[in-house]
Amino acid sequence: MNQSSEKKVTGLTSTHSEEEWEKRPPTIDIIRPETYKLLSKEAGNKGTSLRKLCNEILEMYLEKEEFLSKYIPKLKKLAFEDNILFVRDSKINKTAEISYNDGLIHCSICKKSLCFHTLYAMSQSDIARLEPGQRKKR
Ligand SMILES: [Zn+2]
Questions:
Q1: How far is the CA of 113 from the centre of ligand 1 (A)?
Q2: pLDDT at residue 1 above 70?
Q3: How far is the CA of 88 from the centre of ligand 1 (A)?
Q4: Whole-angstrom Cα distance, residue 136 to residue 122?
Q5: How far is ligand 1, taken at its centre, from the CA of residue 96, in Å?
Q6: How far from the centroid of its chain's Cα atoms is residue 100's Cα?
Q7: What three-state secondary structure class fits 64?
Q8: What tens digit of pLDDT does each residue of 15-34 get?
Q9: What is the mean pLDDT of residues 85-108?
Q10: Which helix (H) or strand (E) holds 39?
Q11: Which residues pair with 95 in a beta bridge?
Q12: Looking at residues 66-71, what average pLDDT do you find?
C-alpha cells in the first residue's frame, strides 16, 4: 500500500466521489511548460518525485492558510491589483496597501516597512508579484 492510498480522503468538494477516487485519483495539469521544468528540477534537487513535491506544496499551502486564519484572524488578503497587495485589518477596520519601493516592502497604514501588515503580506504568494515602484494605473 503506498502512502497516498493510506490517507482517508474527506471533505471532497470536486466532482470526484470517494468511490471514483479509489478507482482513479484526480490529476492536475501543469499548464505552463516553464513551471513544469522548474518543478521537475526542484523535485530532482530534493530527491523526490514531481507528484510528491506537488502534493507537498499543495498541502503546505493549505496548512499555511489554516494557520493564518487561526492565529492571525484579523488580517486577510483582499486582492493584488495595480502592483498593490491589499490586506484588510478587521481589528482597526482599515485596508493596508502593501507596495515595494526603494528595496523595501511598505505599509500605507503604518508608514513603515516592518509591521503586522507587511509581515502578513510576506506570507502571501502574491508578494513575489510586487514590482519596485508605485501603483500601476490600468
Ligand atoms: Zn502596517
A1: 8
A2: no
A3: 10
A4: 20
A5: 6
A6: 19
A7: helix
A8: 677 888 788 877 889 999 99
A9: 96
A10: helix 33-46
A11: 88
A12: 95
Which residues keep their CB under 5 angstroms from ion ligand 1?
107, 109-110, 115, 117
Q: Are 132 and 101 in contact, with CB atoms under 8 Å apart?
A: yes
Q: What is the pLDDT of residue 102?
A: 86
CA of 92 to the centre of ligand 1 (A): 11
Per-residue model confidence (pLDDT) at position 2:
42
Give the distance, in angstroms, between the CA of residue 101 and the centroid of all CA atoms in the same chain. 22
- Rounded to the nearest whole angstrom, what is the distance from the C-alpha of residue 86 to the centroid of ligand 1? 11
- Report the separation in Å between the CA atom of 26 and the middle of ligand 1, taken as the mean of its atom positions: 41
Rounded to the nearest angstrom, the distance between the alpha carbon of 57 and the centre of ligand 1 is 28
Q: In this predicted structure, what is the pLDDT of residue 13?
A: 54
The cell for 51 is: 507528484
Q: Which H or E run contains 107? A: strand 104-107
Distance, CA of 18 to CA of 40 (rounded, Å): 29
Measured in angstroms, how far is the CA atom of residue 58 from the centroid of ligand 1?
Answer: 28
Q: pTM here?
A: 0.74
Domain ranges of the chain: 16-70, 75-129
